[in-house]
Specification:
210 residues, mainly beta, 1 helix, 4% helix, 69% strand
C-alpha cells in the first residue's frame, strides 16, 4: 500500500478543506489476503496511486476494496485537480489465485454507494476556491505479475494521510513483492515494473470525509 504524493500538491490539498462542501462519510475495511498496488508520478505536474485488496470475509459475503487517487496541475499551473475513489467493490472484480498473477477489472458502477466515495475537486491556485463534483465514470483494467526483484515484510505499519477534506488511516501487516503491471485507467494506459503485490494479514483501511 505504497503512498507517494508530490509535496506541492499535498500542501495545496491540505489548504483546500476550508472551501470544500461538507459531507460526512466514515467507513473501514478489514483487509486480509491478496493485494496489489502501484504509484506513478510525473514531477511536478501529476501523481497517481492505486491499491486494491481482498477484504476479510465474514459469512458468505466476500468483497474487495479499492483506493485510487490522482492529482494534476493544469498546463499553466493556475489550478490543480484531484480525484479520489475509495470503497467496497465486488470480490469478482479482483481475481487471481495467488500473488503471481492478479487482475483488477473494475467499473465505477460496481461501487457500493453506502461504503464508497468518488469525487473530483479542482482548486483555483490564485483565489483558493474549490469546486467538487462526482468522480469519473468508466473502467480500470490492470494486470499484475510478481517479478520478485525485491521482497519485503511489513511487520506493523501505521499511517495517516490527509487529502483535502479526507483522512485515510492505514494499518498494515503484509508480505510483499515487486511486480510488473500494465493496463488502462479510464482509457489511459499505464505500465511499470515497480508495482507491489502481496498478502495482507489482518490489515485495515479507514476512510473519513468531513
Amino acid at each position: 500500500m505504497k503512498r507517494l504524493f508530490m509535496p506541492t500538491l499535498l500542501t495545496l490539498m491540505m489548504i483546500a478543506p476550508l472551501a470544500l462542501t461538507a459531507q460526512t462519510a466514515h467507513f473501514k475495511f478489514n483487509q486480509d489476503g491478496e493485494f496489489a498496488s502501484f504509484t506513478q508520478s510525473n514531477p511536478p505536474t501529476s501523481s497517481v496511486n492505486l491499491s486494491v485488496s481482498r477484504n476479510l470475509t465474514t459469512g458468505s459475503s466476500a468483497t474487495a476494496s479499492i483506493s485510487y487517487v490522482s492529482a494534476s496541475f493544469s498546463s499553466d499551473f493556475s489550478s490543480f485537480t484531484f480525484t479520489q475513489i475509495v470503497g467496497t467493490i465486488p470480490a469478482s472484480d479482483f481475481s487471481g489465485q495467488n500473488t503471481q498473477n492478479l487482475t483488477l477489472n473494475f467499473n465505477t458502477s460496481d461501487l457500493d454507494p453506502s461504503t464508497s466515495v468518488s469525487q473530483t475537486c479542482t482548486l483555483d491556485v490564485i483565489s483558493f476556491t474549490v469546486s467538487c463534483g462526482a468522480g469519473p465514470t468508466g473502467t480500470i483494467s490492470l494486470s499484475f505479475q510478481e517479478n520478485g526483484v525485491q521482497r519485503t515484510r511489513v511487520l506493523a505499519l501505521g499511517e495517516e494521510i490527509t487529502l483535502g477534506n479526507t483522512t485515510t488511516r492505514i494499518h498494515q501487516r503484509s508480505d510483499n513483492s515487486t511486480a510488473n503491471f500494465s493496463g488502462t485507467i479510464f482509457g489511459t494506459s499505464v505500465s511499470g515494473s515497480d508495482g507491489t503485490v502481496g498478502i495482507n494479514h489482518n490489515s485495515s483501511l479507514e476512510y473519513i470525509k468531513n
